[in-house]
Amino acid sequence: MGEYPQHTTGQPWGPTAPLEPPATGNPDGTSARSWYKKKRFIIPGALVALSIGIAATGGEDEPAAPTAVETESVDATSEPSPTVDTEAEKAAAEAAEEEQKREAEREEAERVAAEEERVAAEAAAAEAAAAEAAAAGTVSQQNAKRSAESYLDFSAFSHEGLVKQLEFEGFSTEDATWAVDEVKVDWNEQAAKSAESYLEFSGFSRSGLIDQLLFEGFSQEQAEYGVSTTGL
Predict the structure, then answer these.
(1) Are residues 150 and 128 in the same domain?
(2) pTM above 0.90, yes or no
(3) Which pLDDT belongs to residue 46?
């Protein structure tokens, strides 16, 4: 066999000269740590850095949740004050009560006005009925009226003289007066007819004929008018 070349350390190459592992020390003389021991410190540090980066990035995308103080402040601002609500409800209740009171007063005024109108209408109707009944007269008054009209058809009478004639027939003063008031007659004309009738049976002076007509119940004016129509 040939000879092995010599190693740089001066050791010859060959089977009896095993290889020594390379030196693991640092240049400064400290021993170098194995790579797997260093990895245990590198991996946790990288995870911490990654977590910080993710947290920083996520904070920019999502707003932070409001704190308890901020939430209470928002709630206090958005919710109305109980005192304000109570005062508003009280004011609304008072306004509603006042409106109901005014409505009740209006209804009462309308009711009173309607009642007054009804009473006035009934009174007017009763008055009209009474006037109509008075104009029509009772049965006795109607009979007295027919009797007065009959007397006037064949003789001249004064108002007073005709009432006395009806009383003589048995009518009451009230019925006789009503009947004479209801007949349509011109009493001046009746005085003229009576004066002419007296002159047909007897002679009279002016004053004597006037006195006769006054005795018959004519008024002074009616008597003088009647006598004047005869030429006296």
Answers:
(1) no
(2) no
(3) 55
Q: Does residue 194 form part of some domain?
A: yes
- 172 Cβ contact partners less than 8 Å away, ≥ 6 residues apart: 140
Range(s) of the domain holding residue 175: 140-228
Instruction: Check whether residue 106 and residue 166 sit in a common domain.
Output: no
State yes or no: pLDDT of 225 exceeds 70. yes
